[in-house]
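Thread: assembly with ligand

MN 10:42: here's the input set. Chains plus the small molecule as SMILES. Want everything predicted jointly, not piecewise.
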Amino acid sequence: MSSPDATRVRELMVVGGDVVVVWADGHESYYPGAALRRACTCAECKGEGHLFGRATLPTLRPLAPAAFVPVAAGLVGNYGLQVTWGDGHDYGIYTLAELRAACPCDSCRAAAAPAR
Ligand SMILES: [Zn+2]
Ligand SMILES: [Zn+2]
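BT 11:07: finished. Tokens for the full assembly:
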């Protein structure tokens, strides 16, 4: 998991309501738009600060359904991913290391979860 390829992006797509990242090591991650938008840490959103966290703070202001629909995604330098949302918002940058660590797929969650 510490290979540099694990946090390098080979391909970036928006598929339906998901942002899809294909990593250089071949792994594919599907991030639901709603979870990503709620984690937006930009000054305007003041998001939860961590992806898929358990924070219970209410959002500061109600967002239109379009706000949770990714319309485009791009790389910022070689460390970040920027998403443009259906409401035109595009300030938030997600670091690739954080995204990879938060991959919601079954095998990554199983690897990250504490033993029960
Ligand atoms: Zn934001
Ligand atoms: Zn995964």
